[in-house]
């Protein structure tokens, strides 16, 4: 499926534009072994003229046939190119931007391209249970790699110390994998990261 870039996009989010829309599909918890539980997920990436994408993912536990059993979780956040904030940028809070958008041309965005040929990105994601993640990573064409720089937990949150996520566009579908570290003993040998979930999502709008 060809990637269609909306003509009204803020230049700064054009590298992320293939994510925009509604995605839905099925996945497996853990490493996806034969006894791993199944889930259904609906993901949306939307934009409002500001230099970021708004992200929401809602998931439901299902049986092997895909019948929904009960809600699993919801996460929400923001995806953006990682760059130094300028005086013209909005924030913090409700402080309005002096210029919208701050980067007005493809050439200005192209200047942000990194030495690997991609763009550095930051992603913040909030979860129920008092957990918030800050990821840094890279988007290079239809591939994204993210690693947590920080995980913030509330005083009564479950143990959760780090995570990585990868996303890719393959044959028009959004594939992703999420590995997490919970601070417990790990046999993975990868800094405590263990397979948490993975899914294949098709674009529904």
UniProtKB/TrEMBL annotation:
UniProt cofactor(s): heme b
Pfam families cross-referenced by the UniProt entry: THAP4_heme-bd
Enzymatic class: isomerase
Residue ranges constituting the THAP4-like heme-binding domain according to the UniProt record: 13-203
UniProt motif GXWXGXG: location: 21-27
Catalysed conversion reaction: peroxynitrite = nitrate
Domain note: Forms a 10-stranded antiparallel beta-barrel structure able to accommodate a hydrophobic ligand in its interior. In fact, this fold hosts the heme group, which is located in a wide surface cleft.
Family the UniProt entry places it in: Belongs to the nitrobindin family.
Annotated protein name in UniProt: Peroxynitrite isomerase
């Amino acid at each position: 499926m060809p990637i269609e870039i909306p003509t009204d996009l803020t230049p700064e989010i054009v590298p992320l534009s293939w994510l925009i829309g509604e995605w839905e599909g099925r996945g497996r918890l853990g490493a996806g072994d034969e006894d791993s539980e199944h889930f259904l997920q609906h993901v949306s990436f939307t934009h409002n003229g500001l230099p970021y994408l708004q992200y929401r993912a809602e998931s439901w536990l299902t049986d092997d046939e895909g019948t929904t059993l009960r809600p699993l979780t919801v996460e929400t956040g923001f995806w953006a190119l990682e760059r130094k904030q300028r005086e013209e940028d909005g924030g913090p809070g409700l402080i309005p931007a002096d210029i919208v958008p701050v980067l007005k041309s493809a050439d200005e965005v192209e200047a942000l391209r990194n030495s690997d040929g991609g763009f550095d990105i930051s992603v913040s994601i909030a979860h129920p249970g008092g957990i918030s993640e800050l990821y840094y990573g890279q988007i290079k064409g239809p591939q994204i790699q993210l690693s947590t720089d920080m995980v913030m937990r509330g005083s009564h949150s479950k143990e959760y110390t780090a995570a990585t996520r990868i996303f890719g566009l393959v044959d028009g579908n959004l594939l992703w994998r999420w590995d997490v570290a919970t601070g417990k003993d790990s046999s993975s040998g990868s800094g405590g990261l263990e397979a948490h979930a993975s899914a294949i999502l098709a674009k529904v709008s």
